[in-house]
C-alpha cells in the first residue's frame, strides 16, 4: 500500500501523564499499565522533542491527569512550545478556580467523560457516587472559562439504546462535540467484556441509530471513531485515512515514556526518552504492519475492506492476537 498520504509526523500525541485515578471504571484500559512517571525535568525535555518533531497537538490523559500536581506547568510548557493542548478528564476535580487555571496555562479543549444522561447509570459505571453531577458542573466551569468542551461516552451495555437522549443531553450542556467511543476489550475491558460489550448485531443496530442522530443533529458534532461504520456506507469523508487512525495520524505515550500505536494496543515501539520519534514514525515495523493490513478470513472477500481495513486494530489484537484478523465487532457474515 502506498504511504504518500502519511504525514511527516503524528498530528497528535495522546500522552498519559499519570495512571493514578480517583474512579473505579470497570472498562479501564490503563489500570494494569506501569505507574512509573517521568520526572518533571525529563518530561519537559520530551515535550520539547515532540514539538520539534513537527507534531501539532498533545492530548493529556491517564488515569486522571489532574492528579498529576505539575499538570499546569506541563501544559504551559507544551503551549509555549507551540503545541495545541487538550485533555481528557472525568471532571471530578474541576472547579471554577482551576478551570480558569487550565485556560491560563494553555488548554484549548477538554473532553469530559459522561456515559449516560442518567446520573445513576453514569455513577454506577464509573464507580463513584456523585460523579455525574461533578462532571456536569465541570463542563459549566470550563465553558465559563472559555475552554472548548466535549463529552466522551463509552458505548456498551449500559447505554447502547440511549443515543438520542445522550445527544439531547450533550446539546443541552452546550458542548461542541459528542465523542462516541466503541467499547475496547483492553485492560479491565477484557476482564469485563462479557458483562459490558455488545454483540456484533447490537453494534450494527447502535450505529444505524447513531448515524441517524448524527445526520439530524446540527447543534453539535457527533464523532464516531469506529472504522466498521464503513459497512453502513459511512465514514468516508470523516477522516484523512481509512480504517483506524492509530499509527497513521496519532501515537500514544505511556507514563514511563513508552510509545505505543494507541492507548489500547500494548505493543511498545520505543520510548520517548531514548528514541527519535520521527525515526520511529517512519521506520517502525509495527506501524508499517498496521498501515498495510492484510485481509484475512471474511475480510478477504468483503467489498468494504478498502474502507474499514478490517475495523478496529486494537480489538482484533485484544481478542484474536493478530492485527490482521477481522474486527470481532464486525457483523458481516462470512459469505
In total, how many beta strands? Answer: 10
**Large-scale geometry:** globular
Distance between the termini: 26 Å
CA-atom Rg in angstroms: 19 Å
Q: State the secondary-structure class.
A: alpha/beta
Main beta-sheet annotation = 10 strands, mixed
Major beta sheet, strand line-up: 7-6-5-4-3-2-1-8-9-10
Kindly estimate the percentage of residues that lie in beta strands according to DSSP. 5-15%
Mean of all residue-level pLDDT scores = 93
The residue ranges in which pLDDT falls below 50 over 5 or more consecutive positions are: none
- Kindly state the percentage of residues in helix: 25-40%
Order of helices and strands: EHEHEHEHHEHEHHHEEEEHHHH
Total helices: the number is 13
Explained architecture:
It is built from 13 helices and ten strands. Helix content is 35%, strand content 15%. The longest helix is centred in the middle third of the chain and has 17 residues. Strands 7-6-5-4-3-2-1-8-9-10 form a ten-stranded mixed sheet. With 335 residues, it is α/β, with parallel strands linked by helices.
